[in-house]
Specification:
This protein has 6 helices and 4 strands. It has 263 residues and is α+β, with helices and mostly antiparallel strands. Helix 1 packs across helix 2.
C-alpha cells in the first residue's frame, strides 16, 4: 500500500476528531500527500538524475584534469626534446667550429712552414752573398793593407808631432772613443737611476768594464748600465744618468766650435 493511500485512510479514520489545521485553512490530507509526493520526487530525482549528473560532472572534471596534466607533461616533453635538440645542435656547431679551426690552423701552419722555408732559403742566399762580398772585400783590403797602415801611422805621427809606436796609437784611439768625461760628471749622484752610455763605436768588454768602473768611482754604485752605439757622435761619450745628460762627444765639441766661429 502506498504512503499516499495510508495517509488518506488515516485522515478518514480520524476525520471525526478535531483537526487543528482546519482552523488555519490547511487540509491536512492534501498537505501530507503533497509533502510525501515532494519527498518521493526528490528521492527519485536524487537517485535517477542528480547523482548521475554529479557522477558525470565528477568524471568529466577528472577527465579534464587528466587532459590538462597530459598536456602539461606533453609540454615538458616537448621542451626537453627542444632542449636536447638545441644542445645537440650546439655540440654540432662547436664540433664544426673545432674542425674548421683545426683545418685553418693546419693550413696556416703549412703556409708558415713554406714561408719559413722560403725565408730561410732567401736568408741563406743573402748570407752566401754577404760571405762572398766579405771575402772579396777582405781580399781587396789585404791587397791594400800595407798602404792603409802606412797612411794611418803617418797621419797620427804628424797630428801628435812625435813618432808613436803601435801600442801608444791604440791607447790614444781608445781614449778618444771611450774616455769618461770626469770633469762634467763631478757632483752628479746616480741615486739608483739607470745609466746609458753612448759611444761612436762599439766598446769592447774591457772598455765597457773600464767605463763602468770610472763612472762608479765618480757617481756611486751603478745598478743598471746600458751601452749604445751612435756613429753620428764621431767620438767621445754621451752619458745619460736618469734625466741628466753629459755630452762629451766630438760632435758636440764641433758644434760648439762652429757656434764660436760664427758668433
Amino acid at each position: 500500500m502506498s504512503p499516499f493511500v495510508a495517509v488518506t485512510q488515516l485522515a478518514a479514520e480520524g476525520g471525526g476528531a478535531a483537526n487543528p489545521f482546519e482552523g488555519l485553512g490547511i487540509n491536512l490530507v492534501q498537505f501530507l500527500a503533497q509533502t510525501i509526493n515532494f519527498l518521493l520526487i526528490m528521492y527519485f530525482l536524487n537517485g535517477m538524475v542528480i547523482r548521475p549528473v554529479l557522477r558525470n560532472l565528477e568524471a568529466r572534471r577528472k577527465r579534464i584534469e587528466e587532459s590538462l596534466e597530459n598536456a602539461r607533461l606533453a609540454d615538458e616533453r616537448l621542451a626537453n626534446v627542444e632542449k636536447d635538440y638545441q644542445a645537440k645542435l650546439n655540440e654540432a656547431n662547436i664540433e664544426a667550429q673545432r674542425i674548421r679551426a683545426e683545418a685553418l690552423n693546419a693550413a696556416q701552419q703549412e703556409a708558415q712552414r713554406i714561408r719559413q722555408e722560403a725565408l730561410a732559403e732567401v736568408e741563406r742566399m743573402r748570407q752566401q752573398a754577404r760571405i762572398d762580398a766579405q771575402a772579396e772585400r777582405n781580399q781587396l783590403l789585404a791587397e791594400a793593407r800595407n798602404q792603409i797602415v802606412a797612411l794611418v801611422i803617418a797621419a797620427t805621427n804628424k797630428l801628435v808631432g812625435e813618432s808613436l809606436d803601435a801600442q801608444r796609437q791604440r791607447a790614444l784611439i781608445n781614449e778618444f772613443f771611450s774616455k769618461v768625461p770626469a770633469a762634467k760628471i763631478a757632483g752628479i749622484a746616480v741615486d739608483s737611476a739607470p745609466v746609458v752610455v753612448t759611444s761612436a763605436l762599439p766598446l769592447t768588454p774591457e772598455e765597457q768594464s773600464r767605463v763602468k768602473e770610472d763612472l762608479s768611482r765618480q757617481i756611486g754604485a751603478i745598478e743598471h748600465i746600458t751601452f749604445e752605439v751612435n756613429p753620428a757622435i764621431l767620438g767621445g761619450l754621451v752619458v745619460r744618468i736618469g734625466d741628466k745628460v753629459i755630452d762629451d762627444s766630438v760632435l758636440s765639441k764641433v758644434n760648439a766650435l762652429r757656434q764660436q766661429l760664427s758668433a
